Amino acid sequence: MASSSSTVHVTLFALAFLLSVHNLFPLASAFEFQVGDLKGWSMPPKNDTGFYNEWASRNRFCPGDTIRFSYRKDSVMEVREEEYKKCNATQPLYFSNTGNTLIELNRSGSFYFISGSSGHCQRGQRMIIVVLSPEDGPGGDTHGKSTSGAVAVAVAAAAAPALVLLGQFVMMSLDSMF
Ligand SMILES: *[C@@H]1O[C@H](CO)[C@@H](O)[C@H](O)[C@H]1NC(C)=O
Ligand SMILES: *[C@@H]1O[C@H](CO)[C@@H](O)[C@H](O)[C@H]1NC(C)=O
Ligand SMILES: *[C@@H]1O[C@H](CO)[C@@H](O)[C@H](O)[C@H]1NC(C)=O
Description:
Layout: H1 2-21, E1 32-34, H2 51-57, E2 66-70, E3 76-79, H3 81-86, E4 94-96, E5 100-104, E6 109-114, E7 126-131, H4 149-159, H5 161-177
Parallel strand pairs: 1-2
Antiparallel strand pairs: 2-5, 3-4, 3-6, 6-7
Helix pairs in contact: 1-4, 1-5, 4-5
This protein binds 2-acetamido-2-deoxy-beta-D-glucopyranose (NAG) (3 copies).
C-alpha cells in the first residue's frame, strides 16, 4: 500500500513537473534549442528514421523560441505540410546551407523542416515542430527552466488553478517521502 501510493505520487510529481517547468516564469526569455542535441542535423540511422520527430516531441516550443541546426555538407528547408509529406524540395519557403542555421519560431502552429540534400529527407532527416499557442499553457507564452521541481510545482499551484489539486497531491507526496 505504502509503496504503490508513493509510486503514484512520484508519477504525479513527474507529471506536474513536466506540465509546469516550461510555462511558469514570466521573466524568462526565449529559449534556443539545438536540433538533435549532440547529433546535430544529419541523416539518422536506418533503424531510427523517427529520430528528429522524437527529439521534437521531447521538447516544448513557445513562440519566440529559436532552433539551431548544426550540420556539414547538408541543408535545411522549411516547407509546407504537403511538401514535407512528399519530401518535395523544389519550392521551399526557406532554405539555408551555411552549416549553422538559426530559425525563430515566430508564431504558434506547425513548422515543417526537411533536408534539401538528395535522398536525406526520404531517409528520415525531417521534422515537424509544433509551437504552442499562448492559450495552451497556464503561463501564456512565457517559459523557462527550473532546477527545482518542488519550486516549479509550488509556483504551478499558486499560478494555475487547474494545477492546484495536482500540486496538493505532490506536496502530500513530498511530505510522505521526507
Ligand atoms: C539501431 O541499431 C543500433 C546498432 O545495431 C542500436 O544500437 C540502436 O539501439 C538501434 N536504435 C533503434 C532506435 O532501434
Ligand atoms: C513539389 O511541389 C511543387 C510546389 O510546391 C509542385 O509544383 C510540384 O508539383 C511538387 N512535385 C511533386 C513531385 O509533388
Ligand atoms: C515569421 O518569419 C517569417 C520569415 O522571416 C516571415 O515571413 C513571417 O511573416 C513571420 N511571421 C510572423 C507571424 O511574424
